[in-house]
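Let us work through a complete example step by step.
Step 1: write down the sequence.
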Amino acid sequence: MDKAKTVIHAEYEILMAVIENVPLDEVHGRLVKDEASATRFGKAANNVAQLIKNLAVRRQHRLPFDHPDFKHKEE
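Step 2: predict the structure and record it as tokens.
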């Protein structure tokens, strides 16, 4: 894909880029001080990743038909 064909398409690509490319090392370094905070951080990171993935999945049926991640809407 050379350009964003729709706003939804651009949103999807941004969400996927966040999931794939945003390192959490700096935040981890600030928040994790012991085993308990490491466990909390891991759970929180998984929760946020799942939220972002859900946002992306909800846009897949509105992607351009020729996009490799396009999926028909399930009823």
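Step 3: interpret the result. Residues 62 and 69 are 10 Å apart (CA to CA).
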